[in-house]
Amino acid sequence: MSQSVVKNSEADAPPPPNRPSGGLKGHPWLTLLTVAVGVMMVALDGTIVAIANPVIQEKLGAAPSEIQWVTSGYLLALAVFLITAGKIGDRFGHKSTFLVGAVGFAATSAAIGFAGNIQTVIAFRVLQGLFGALLQPAALGLLRGAFPAERLNMAIGIWGGVIGASTAAGPIVGGLLVEHVGWESVFFINVPVGLIALALGLWILRDVRAENAARSFDLPGIGLLSVGMFALVFGIIKAPEWGWGNGRTLLFLGGAVVLMVLFALWQGRAKEPLIPLSLFRSVPLSAGVLLMVLMAFAFFGAIFFVTFYLQNVHGMKPVDAGVHLLPMTGMMIVGSPLAGLAIGKLGPRIPITAGMLLTTGAMFGMSTLGTGSGTGVMSLWFVLMGLGISPVIVGATEVIVGNAPLELSGVAGGLQQAAMQVGGSLGTAVLGALMAAKVGDVLPGNWAKAGLPPVADPQQAELLKQGAQLGIAPPAQPGMPQQAVDAMAGAVHQSFVSGMSLAFVVAAAVAFAAALLALLTRRGSTDAGPAVHI
């Protein structure tokens, strides 16, 4: 982000950050509180909805590919729009952008709660992702304007801690709401939080705009990237249903490749490109972006499958599943300050590499989980997972933003967040496709080994396979012996675990590749310049 410019007179200029006088507007610590409340909704949504997914699938009768889009649609919209949202904040002011994002996020959350079918849920989740994208870059811009350079890192650290705490609270809060109120309450909870963010924002925030703000937007670039990413993820999600060699699958995947190439060519010609290609001349920055994609690929894929494993295979209630996930999300809070301390002393390379190796071990450990695995074993791998990803998240700002030219630091910050969201969307889609294929392969054999008769009706067989992809056993028929009910559940759960194991092995390989990439990272070489209030 370029240095801000003062447009007020000396008399109207805000007081120094540590000596607020004559009102609270622009107060640095209250600005931090305000933006933390707003962004907390986005962080909370990342894990709270994962707990609700199994119940949403059941209540709305969603297919596996549709329930994946509840997550993938949100993440994709968030990822595609983050960089554009950063430029919107530079052009129209970060305060206005933040307030629109907070109100829009709360409003779309309410609309999801009132939705009566899965298609409406997915549509408003996409809109929710767009408004969430407005919040994050605007929050960072407001912090840069409120704090002097020597205190900005402390502010971002506290802000990151709030996000980590919200992420950790998601499974617990989500479990309690789903179990005692209903899945709709998971989204309704954002309404009062959004109203608080709006009220605080109007009262506290002082607007910040970048010097030489963009006067136009790269609309062709936005269109090419958005359509290209949609084609890629949609093709991957539908491939298990259509077949990987099917013409429709190849059309979407091939179209995505063509659109991405066109996007890259256009970025080299555009007057104000969405993503300046000059950013990628830095090897550490490029490695950091890809590192974020790979980390999120493995992590978000893991979260998606684990919730179904805990609730459908182990039969846990949503709140119990949330408690079992707490070691992983809780370790993110503990690991983040430790990682920050280590990165400050050693630089990012060693802590990030070690973190990705821990994540690799955790993924391999999760691939050994079975239908009867105990809480202790699961908690061990969850703890390692939380500790492993912390150095990557903490070090990403220094690796990506720190190695970008100062005038492109805002774009680099959006690129960092976009890389994480794209990785999460692709991870959910790709690992979901691999798991669906594995479950389809092993289910007939497990069904036969259980002594169950073949399912002759093709429609019933397809429903059985779709349920097995989520770990859901078919309901018991009237008069069916308990032995047969248990045999069906055992065959389905064993098939689900086989698919989950394959997904975790692939995720472990991706995490190991990220550990190798981390060797190319280094401490940022660009010093942050001062930021001044408008």
Please render the helix and strand layout as text.
Elements lengths: L27 H33 L3 H29 L1 H20 L4 H29 L2 H32 L4 H4 L1 H15 L14 H24 L4 H21 L15 H31 L4 H29 L2 H18 L8 H27 L7 H41 L8 H11 L13 H37 L16
Helix pairs in contact: 1-2, 1-4, 1-5, 1-7, 1-10, 2-3, 2-4, 2-8, 2-14, 3-4, 3-7, 5-11, 8-9, 8-14, 10-13, 10-14, 10-16, 11-12, 11-13, 12-13, 12-16, 13-14, 14-16, 15-16
What structural keywords apply?
single chain; 534 residues; mainly alpha; 75% helix; 0% strand; globular; disordered N terminus; disordered C terminus; transmembrane helix; MFS transporter; EmrB-like; membrane
Structure description:
Helices cover 75% and strands 0% of the residues. It has 16 helices and no strands. Helix 1 packs antiparallel against helix 4, helix 3 packs antiparallel against helix 7 and helix 10 runs parallel beside helix 14. It starts with 27 loop residues before the first helix and ends in a 16-residue tail after the last helix. 56% of the residues are buried.
Our estimate of the beta-strand percent is under 5%
Which term fits the overall shape? globular
Number of helices: 16
Amino- and carboxy-terminal Cα gap: 15 Å
Task: Supply the helix-strand structural class.
Answer: mainly alpha
Overall radius of gyration: 23 Å
Uncertain runs: 1-22, 526-534
Average of pLDDT:
79
The share of residues in helices is over 70%
**Biggest sheet descriptor:** none
Give a count of the beta strands, DSSP E runs of length 2 or more.
0
Give the H and E element order.
HHHHHHHHHHHHHHHH
